[in-house]
Amino acid sequence: MRHLFRALFRRKPMDYTIHQASGKNGLQKAMGAFDLTMLGVGAVIGTGIFVMTGIVAAQNAGPAIILSFILSGIACAFAALCYAEFASMIPASGSAYTYSYTVFGELFAWILGWDLILEYGLACSVVASGWSAYFQELLKGFGVHLPTAISAAFDPSKGTYVDVMATVIVLLLSTILLSGVKESSRINDIMVLIKIGVVLLFVIVGAFYVQPSNWTPFMPYGFGGVVQGAATAFLAYIGFDAVSSASEEVRNPQRDMPIGILSSLGVCMVLYIAVSVVLTGMVPYTELNVGDPVAFALRFVHQNWVAGFVSLGAILGITTVLFVMMYGQTRLFFAISRDGLLPKSIAKLSKKSKTPIFSILLTWIMATIFSALVPLDELAQLVNIGTLFAFIVVSIGVVVLRVKRPDIKRNFKVPLVYVIPFLSVLSCGFLMVNLSGQTWIRFLIWFGIGLVIYLFFGFRHSELGKLQKQNR
């Protein structure tokens, strides 16, 4: 029994993880700090800035949404600091899965990896469906209407059977990922820079139409509303963790990973706050409970030409979010299968571009089926619970490793290591507890399925398990 327990919680040595990443089965090193920052901004600035800003202002915080985004940004920074420390120590694919394999052992790593598969998989599908809806609205502006049957996921009561546009964007981004990380990151950089330009265009134009009287009352729902708004706004920052999945493909990960993670979060925080200030200054907060508050605000002040650019920016924003989620999913599949916990063939790399071909194809199939056929409105909260769980594990892992392995060289250290990770766990735990009971049930069912797969496949095929048997 003791032997079985040890086998289930066998920990992967950090040296072995680094050897995997730098050996012949490692990915191509082609990214720098700028690419990582763009990857993080690409993941975070999407529907949150173009939709959530208006909803939080109207329903929770009023003009004090500025404070909501500051509070949620600080809470998210706690987790980001913990990710940055791990990323500077372990430059390998897999993000939180790989970190927990080193700290807590194989079973826990598998559970977290399985959790992240759900997070990225559903996120890809939810975002692809959102992209399709936005793009169809843009087409309608040009008088083009898709047949109802192919306009949304399977729902016979509404006459919809397949979301064709969702499958198109997933296929397009999968093709870009297959081209190699260097080419992929370059395309992402361009899209993100255009998106930032569109956001800044709104801030600059909108600033001329700000009416200070719209900021009164500043806190109409009290401080409780600000906190509730912060809890909702926290979810708008989720996505920066996908940056850590790029560790293995960074030229100087020990230096660039912390820069990429923290600078991307900083840029996003500044943009969220700037948009919130201008948005609530342009339009009374009570009128912002609409699906496109940023474009609505511009139409409100008769700047329709800028509203058109904002609609384009929203589509680009969602595109980069989808791209980064798909990228994170492919690297997660690659890391887990390289360890033998999923079929090893999934980790096979192309000879020319050193990209994980079958990981990309698996991600493409999963995202296509989910986004094209499955209505995902009720499942979207599972993305949040999966991410928050990963944040908690990484935050605890930083403290555990500081105690157990203080000798390890850390190019970046979390300041106040016994305070900040605790605050990260507290803020993420608070949000998890407030998710619906149905979400928790689905989360636990997914865990149960994963446990069965691990016991019948992963445990027997583990590369670490085979290595330990050889060394006995």
Describe the 3D structure:
The protein is an all-alpha fold and 472 residues long. The chain has one domain (34-467): Amino acid/polyamine transporter I (Up-down Bundle), CATH 1.20.1740.10. The chain contains 18 helices and no strands. The chain is globular and about 75 Å long. The model has no long low-confidence stretch (mean pLDDT 86). InterPro entries: AA/rel_permease1. It comes from Sporolactobacillus shoreicorticis.
Brief overview:
This protein has helices at 2-8, 14-22, 33-44, 47-61, 65-89, 96-103, 106-141, 164-178, 181-207, 222-237, 253-282, 293-300, 304-338, 357-373, 380-404, 420-433, 437-461, 463-470.
Which features does this protein show?
mainly alpha; 472 residues; single chain; 18 helices; Amino acid/polyamine transporter I
Number-wise, the strands total 0
- Could you give the order of the helices and strands? HHHHHHHHHHHHHHHHHH
Q: N-to-C terminal Cα separation, in Å?
A: 18 Å
- Quote the beta fraction: under 5%
The residue fraction in helices comes out at over 70%
CATH fold-level assignment: Amino acid/polyamine transporter I
Give the CA-based shape. globular
Give the helix/strand class.
mainly alpha
- pLDDT averaged over residues: 86
pLDDT under 50 segments (min length 5)? none
Counted by DSSP, the helix tally is 18
- Radius of gyration from CA coordinates: 22 Å
**CATH homologous superfamily identity:** Amino acid/polyamine transporter I
CATH class: Mainly Alpha
Question: What is the second-level CATH architecture?
Answer: Up-down Bundle
Largest sheet: none
Count of the domains: 1
